[in-house]
Amino acid sequence: MTKSYDPALLEPTLYPFEIPVSTRFGDLDPNGHINNVALAVAFEDARVRFSRANLTDGVLDTRTMIVANYIDYLAQAYYPQPLHIHFGVDEIGRSSWNVALIAVQDGTVVALNRAVLVHSDGQRAMPMPQPMREKLQAFRLRRGDTR
Amino acid sequence: MTKSYDPALLEPTLYPFEIPVSTRFGDLDPNGHINNVALAVAFEDARVRFSRANLTDGVLDTRTMIVANYIDYLAQAYYPQPLHIHFGVDEIGRSSWNVALIAVQDGTVVALNRAVLVHSDGQRAMPMPQPMREKLQAFRLRRGDTR
Amino acid sequence: MTKSYDPALLEPTLYPFEIPVSTRFGDLDPNGHINNVALAVAFEDARVRFSRANLTDGVLDTRTMIVANYIDYLAQAYYPQPLHIHFGVDEIGRSSWNVALIAVQDGTVVALNRAVLVHSDGQRAMPMPQPMREKLQAFRLRRGDTR
Amino acid sequence: MTKSYDPALLEPTLYPFEIPVSTRFGDLDPNGHINNVALAVAFEDARVRFSRANLTDGVLDTRTMIVANYIDYLAQAYYPQPLHIHFGVDEIGRSSWNVALIAVQDGTVVALNRAVLVHSDGQRAMPMPQPMREKLQAFRLRRGDTR
């Protein structure tokens, strides 16, 4: 299978927002590495922290649904050092938006996460309000082209 | 973003192997649904159970690494009813293979998982032994074309 | 430290209710055993399944709070075989009740869980309604004495 | 049921070691609170971080087994603020030792954890080496009496 992601996404300077996420002993799997699912938990936490810091007024935004969550694993991650998650908004649609995140540990990009999020009433997609769209715009990935 | 997966993958009859996975109260998130990461755990369990049942001699195969894990979420999943995970091998390379899985609950496909797995010595990719390749062949997705 | 639990609690015939709980690959820790916290998740699932099967009318009872959760680990537990959780009600108070559970795998008691649960309005304890008390009575541990 | 723990254990000044543990979105349960099992994961992480910082030479000590893990839940814990785990050694035996930990969030003690840990060769208990015993002594709870 050929690589399905743009390698430019592995460059930390592309990302406008950074969130540290601690690792936990419970993230380790029988190989002694951070389990791949634990990295999904770390990315989820970073996405939620971005939303709570920037998209809402401090209350939990329960109206965001995730419809696609793609993770590429690039290197082993370890305990107990933290992960540094870099976050950026990629494409912005009418009711959905794409985000990209990389997890960096000890200077190495250990994983890439691309996710599609949908603004919803909890059941179905809804057009994003304009202020939300503007806030997402402020955190676009710093690249000239659009994937 | 346009759909990046082949909709034919949502058809359960495509898959040669099925594994039931129970849900747990701990899989629920603040929305009262099975959390997206819990579905990743269920898919992981199904992949490992397939490997243990079919690829190894009963000992844990610690030489499989996951390098890509893509999940599309199609419907809400609930507790306490189980998930039925349908599993099939898609492409088979020299040291890596692609798998596809769908999680079905109460007759609804709730998620699609595509993953790339690599046969390794724990650190780097190794060519698959021929018997392993043949076993994977026996569990190919039942479709005429190859994606 | 001396043993703080009654060894009689390790006898499966004491328990009136049994719930199988599957193990998952994600339950394994770096030692290759089921992690102690994963056993806590299994016990939690068994307690909730008991409540949903016997105490409510099929809707999730969000009014039960756990105030004490004591687990004694007696033997290693493994993947992929299931756990068999045996459940019984110990003491019944005005708004709280004590439960005991053991996890049995391959004929061995691997853990004992004692928990104190409280009937509440979500914030504070409330007296249990009489029908609930009667249902709990029906699942008392089968022993003569009361701890 | 009467309280089974010494209320003096809820006093943070009793504890000689403190470890902050971040909360994660994935720790939330359907009630919107930090799940009781997630608190067990946080306590586990604190215990391991203590051991790695103080008992070993920087390598993961795989020879510690947990044989009892008792948690009392005293107040709700929330996301996204961190937990502050306070840690101390209580009794020290020949091959086992007892620890106590409290989780404090926003100034409130939300949970108490008492655990019994055993020094082992991975299968059975072994007497602790004297240097390990001395290090544990250095982190005893700061109280006059011994429970």
Layout of SSEs?
Four copies of one chain form a homotetramer.
Chain A: E1 17-21, H1 36-54, E2 64-73, E3 83-92, E4 96-105, E5 108-119, H2 130-137
Antiparallel strand pairs in A: 1-3, 2-5, 3-4, 4-5
Polypeptide structure, described:
- Four copies of one chain form a homotetramer.
- By secondary structure, chain A is of the alpha+beta class.
- The first copy, chain A, has helices at residues 36-54, 130-137, and strands spanning 17-21, 64-73, 83-92, 96-105, 108-119.
- A five-stranded antiparallel beta sheet of chain A has the order 1-3-4-5-2.
- Chain A is globular, with a radius of gyration of 15 Å.
- Chain A starts with 16 loop residues before the first strand and ends in a 10-residue tail after the last helix.
- Chain A binds chain B through residues 1, 4, 30-31, 36-37, 40-41, 44, 60, 62, 65-74, 91, 93, 96, 98, 116, 122, and chain B through 1, 4, 30-31, 36-37, 40-41, 44, 60, 62, 65-74, 91, 93, 96, 98, 116, 122.
- Strand 2 (64-73) of chain C pairs antiparallel with strand 2 (64-73) of chain D.
